[in-house]
Amino acid sequence: MKLYYSPGACSLSPHIVAEEAGLPCEFILVSTKSHKLQDGTDFYSINPLGYVPFLVLDDGQTLREGPVIVQYLADQVPEKKLLPAVGSMERYRVLEWLNFIGTELHKSFGPLFKPGTPEDYKPSVREALRGRFEWVEQQLAGKDYLMGEQFTVADAYLFTVSGWGKFVGLDLSDLPHLQAYLARVGSRPAVQAALRAEGLLK
Ranges for the GST C-terminal domain (predicted)? Predict the structure, then answer.
């Protein structure tokens, strides 16, 4: 398999999951600015939408959208329990988290990263995001991970988007459960491997 990624972007989530799953995967760097690969290939010729993550399977089929890619990867190694069993309520809870993180957190960061966003609009975006993270803080009380003691694909996604706050003036340092959780996830060997591979960890 080939996973196209950009350092620290939302593609970090499937990168972490691939490492956790122990699946053979080639990680291919894409520039978010030039939309080119390191060899000069136009990324739009590979993924017409031009964004990461983008997964190419061994048989040539492709998958896009991070929350779907992580489900696919997790289902290849059910014994790792990165995603609960099909039909179980626990699985729906993880999918619920993936959707929440994707729509309420991930997409909400968008205006803060876009150069053209009016400055007077950004405080209201930060305020809304802050409220969502305060809710997440409550959900993490007494838990190691979002689902309790078991690390799942939703944790890889939350870890990834939570790391963006420092780049856009969203201070989350006073949320103790979240900070302890991020340290816990960040210390996992597979997470460290993904961060190191993306040049985000010395």
Answer: 87-202
Place of tokens 């949320």: 175
| Tokens at 121, concatenated | 């609009």
Q: Categorise residue 87: left if φ over 0, alpha if ψ from -120 to 50, beta otherwise.
A: left
Q: Max alpha carbon distance in the chain (Å)?
A: 49
Answer yes or no: are the C-beta atoms of 178 and 166 closer than 8 Å. Answer: no
- Domain residues for the domain of 105 are 89-188
Say if CB 40 and CB 195 are below 8 A apart. Answer: no
What's residue 60's pLDDT?
96
Q: Whole-model pTM?
A: 0.96
* Distance between CA atoms of residues 156 and 198, nearest Å: 15
Neighbours of 29 (CB within 10 A): 16
Three-state DSSP state, 15: helix
Number of folded domains that form the chain: 2
Digit-coded pLDDT (tens) for 55-99: 999 999 999 999 999 999 999 999 999 999 999 999 999 999 999
Same domain, 47 and 106: no
